[in-house]
Amino acid sequence: MNMSACFTLITVALILTVFTSMAPNSAVPEEQVVVGEEIEHVRVVTLNRPRQLNAISPELVSLLATYLEKWEKDENAELVIIKGAGRAFCAGGDLRVFYDGRKTKDACLEVVYRFYWLCYHISTYKKTQVALVQGISMGGGAALMVPLKFSVVTEKTVFATPEASFGFHTDCGFSYYHSRLPGHLGEYLALTGGRLSGKEIVAAGLATHLVPSEKIGELEKRLISLNSGDENAIRSVIEEFSSEVNLDDESILNKKSTINDCFSKDSVEEIIKSLEVEANKEGNRWIGAVVKGMKRSSPTALRIALRSVREGRNETLAHCLKREFRLTINILRTTISEDMYEGIRALTIDKDNSPKWEPSSLDKVEDAKLDLIFQPFEKNLELHIPESEESRWDGKYENSAYAAPN
Q1: Other CB atoms closer than 10 Å to residue 281's CB: what's the count?
Q2: 217 labelled catalytic
Q3: Is the pTM above the cut of 0.70?
Q4: pLDDT tens digits, 74-112
Q5: Active-site residue, from 92, 93, 135, 194
Q6: From the candidates 139, 140, 167, 312, which is the catalytic residue?
Q7: How far is CA 47 from CA 132, 153, 331, in A?
Q8: Is residue 93 flagged as an active site residue?
Q9: Which member of 78, 163, 200, 324 is catalytic?
């Protein structure tokens, strides 16, 4: 069900290591984690870690950024297509990378900095982009889909932002994207990790088109043969392959009234209490799984996620990414909690699905500690987002204070 607790999904998405079949037209050399192709005026970038569900790794971020910067500056490049090898688009951050670096201070700071910086450039890219999204598109992986001019999903696509369930927070720009969804759907997605199907992703406004999976290969060929970045021409081609979006009766998007009422409350505690009241009403059996999932999530992470999305409502994408960077670095440094490492342990290391959160309940999460991790860094230690077109590709990690020799 779309409303079921997200732990099973996360376990499948982040632990599954072998796919035996590849999606059509996705065969690329296995040794390259990102493959870039230049075909006249079209550029195709393939995320190529199929056995890891194309999870975001340091090398993947570096190569992807290199291609995208090169192509934006290339006058011959007009259209950029982004896709994933195998049966996933991108499952988000490689949590084992974070876990393995837990005992070394700021071991993962560079990849975090580079990817958040890249998220801004993807969202503001100057060339026409099309994402062809098959299978899982989760967390940071969905940041390669949602902001694009054209994002094509299929009936096999699954979207989720499940970070709170393993002690993390809604990042990679999603405090911005979620805060702009209709009503309080963004809070629902951030706090529950609820899954959306392909047609729900389009109906929610997180993707632009739904295309049957068997037509994706042919659509890619047509886009390449179009050999143009003209948005009207690209839209026309995609619409030739698109299916009408008709939501199932049980879709979470048909529960807007309840979601808006419950997830508009001021605190996570009030949201849960409101859901529990609604669960007793006829037709609301779906709420039980939602409440169960939230109660299994990190109390600290839930409170961080709610506050972050709420703050995002009144901020630009650049401001949201800067805040998310601070939160992530503080979480990785265990400034107020070790919940993220405990969540990863329970999900991907010991696989017991029984994390021991500290603190263990929402009422024990101190406001003062939350304030601490939301505080701005010193100016030179913030994520540097370009402030003008002339300096659009400035602010790279290697020119930051973090990369300076000690």
Answers
A1: 10
A2: no
A3: yes
A4: 999 999 999 999 999 999 999 999 999 999 999 999 999
A5: 93
A6: 140
A7: 11, 16, 27
A8: yes
A9: 163
